[in-house]
Specification:
Elements: H1 16-23, H2 36-47, H3 51-63, H4 107-115, E1 121-122, H5 124-140, H6 148-165, E2 175-176, H7 177-186
Antiparallel strand pairs: 1-2
Helix pairs in contact: 2-3, 4-7, 5-6
């Protein structure tokens, strides 16, 4: 793991997972010159998911950019910071567009996500609480309500918290808070805390 701050001219996305992939070298460490194949292979390898599932993520992210960006041979992670295209309001870890830049994790938002659970674990129920809270906070800050599309995207992103860091099956899957915090705050896979690839 090498944080983006140690890599000259690093580009990052408004997504902790994609940034973690770059920080660990599953995709280009500087976040530039990434091909669709690199992107799909990096996701599949890092998360131990079927390449066809990883390709859905790739095609969703890159396809949303529209031509000519999604037709180019390669892209940079910061190209995904397009509001209401790939980046959206009511993120669990980032500010809304009207509140400032959306590329940097906000530790206070991560802490609030952790506080939504009254145990040492993040669960499906605590993530539901976090999603509802963030959507209310977003509207209170002056952002419009999320579109149906981004409600769906947001639910998928919340599910990724458990997919990436959790253990257990189905509704019983849960993630230790210290692992979730290290992942979201530092954009790394914290093996020393017990992180295991799914």
């Amino acid at each position: 793991w090498i944080p983006a701050s140690k890599i000259p001219d690093a580009r990052r996305a408004p997504c902790p997972l994609l940034n973690t992939l770059a920080n660990h070298g599953f995709i280009s460490r500087d976040g530039k010159g990434i091909t669709k194949t690199n992107f799909t292979d990096g996701i599949a390898t890092a998360l131990n998911v079927d390449p066809s599932f990883a390709a859905i993520i790739t095609n969703g992210a890159i396809g949303a950019l529209g031509a000519p960006a999604n037709e180019s041979a390669s892209f940079s992670l910061d190209q995904l910071d397009v509001h209401d295209v790939d980046e959206h309001d009511a993120s669990l870890t980032r500010l809304d567009k009207i509140q400032g830049q959306t590329l940097t994790v906000q530790p206070s938002l991560v802490d609030a996500l952790l506080a939504d659970s009254d145990t040492g674990f993040i669960t499906t129920n605590s993530l539901a609480i976090s999603r509802v809270r963030r959507e209310k906070e977003s509207v209170a800050a002056g952002s419009p309500p999320l579109s149906d599309h981004f409600v769906g995207v947001s639910l998928g992103e919340a599910a990724f918290v458990l997919l990436v860091t959790g253990l257990g099956e189905g509704a019983a899957r849960q993630a230790k808070k210290d692992i979730v915090k290290a992942w979201l705050d530092e954009e790394r896979f914290p093996v020393e805390l017990g992180y295991q690839r799914s």
